[in-house]
Amino acid sequence: xxxxxxxxxxxxxxxxxxxxxxxxxxxxxxxxxxxxxxxxxxxxxxxxxxxxxxxxxxxxxxxxxxxxxxxxxxxxxxxxx
Length: 81
Fold this sequence. Notes:
By secondary structure, the chain is mainly alpha-helical. It is 33% helix and 7% strand. It has helices at 7-13, 21-30, 52-61, and strands at residues 42-44, 47-49. A two-stranded antiparallel sheet has the order 1-2.
C-alpha cells in the first residue's frame, strides 16, 4: 500500500518519471482513467492508501500532456499608425 507522499519516490525507483505528490493527488481526483477511485481507497487517518500493483500500470501507460502555451502561436498585434 502506498500514499500520495510515497508515490514520487516509488515512481523514480520503478524507472518512471517522478512527479510530485500533489500532482498524483490531482490525477487521482481528476483523471477518469485513475485505477482506484479516491473515495474507494483505504483510509488511514487522513491518508489515502492505494495498492501499488494497480497504480503502477496506470503510470506506465499514462501519456503526459504538457500544458499548451497560448502565447506562442499568436502574432503580436500591429500598432495602429
